[in-house]
Amino acid sequence: MDWDDLRIFLAVARTESLSGAGRRLAMDASTVGRRIARLEAAVGAALFLKTPQGYALTAEGARLVAPSEAAELAATAASEAVRAEAGITGQLRIGAPDGCANYLLPQVARDLCDAHPGLEVQIVALPRVVNLTRREADMAIAVSPPDTGRLMVQRLVDYQLHLAGHRDYLARHPPLRDLADLKGHRMISYIPDMIFDRELDYLSATGMEVAQISSNSVAVQMQAVRAGAGLGIVHDFAIPFAPGLQRILTDRIALRRSFWLIRHADDRASRRLSLLADALAQGIRAEVLRLEGLLGPCPVRGT
């Protein structure tokens, strides 16, 4: 049985489509289909059932996943052994919520690529938790530790969030001295039914029930606050990217959250991914501390 056919099989199993596997493998979908047909002929069984939702594994296909993943690990280990003297190279795909992806990972990716010129970093910003079981990424950053799955979980860093508004907006609207004063202001937050993690429910900290402007994207919310459209809970580490933003009511509203690094348990044996995970963790910690340190102490009361 050809390892390359197993590699293609795993890509289809994880993406549940020929086109998705083709994009992941830089291969034409028709070629993927032919290779799957060749593998099915070799094992003497259908591995996938085509459904309206995509390509679902048959019972025979499901039994082939574990040995294929074992072959994948062996191939990865062999490749790393050959490249050991050349340093860390190849592709690293990182999944992250868009706040981290927009305001932290670009700088961290820059430093990783500077340190390892042969490295290619891909940042996947998704408004949901990245699925490592389906290999959507090599590792993921999340705002809550997962409670299921064969995963390695590492706490990275705590970060701060505060209510903020643009100075132009604050100059045009009534002063804010206490939480009750928020009733005279427009709020910006998440779309309630698109909050994919309870840690992202920021609006409840303000005592307000409705946000007049909402988005499933932290970056969009941040741009709305920057445009003077209203007030929103924002990451302290993002404020340096938005001149004119001011933290307000900091003695009334101050949130602390954490980033977690998540890896598939099978990757424990990969020295390459372990080294990259350590470098990624150090980079994110340092960048959060640097950016939050640019803000200085919080104002005690009001604007």
From TrEMBL:
GO terms for biological process: DNA-templated transcription. Belongs to the LysR transcriptional regulatory family. Residues 1-58 form the HTH lysR-type domain. This is LysR family transcriptional regulator. Gene3D superfamilies: 3.40.190.290, Winged helix-like DNA-binding domain superfamily/Winged helix DNA-binding domain (1.10.10.10). Keywords: DNA-binding, Transcription, Transcription regulation. InterPro entries: LysR-type_TF_proteobact-type (IPR058163), LysR_HTH_N (IPR000847), LysR_subst-bd (IPR005119), WH-like_DNA-bd_sf (IPR036388), WH_DNA-bd_sf (IPR036390). It comes from the Bacteria. The keyword Glycoprotein does not apply. It comes from Paracoccus liaowanqingii. GO terms for molecular function: DNA-binding transcription factor activity; sequence-specific DNA binding.
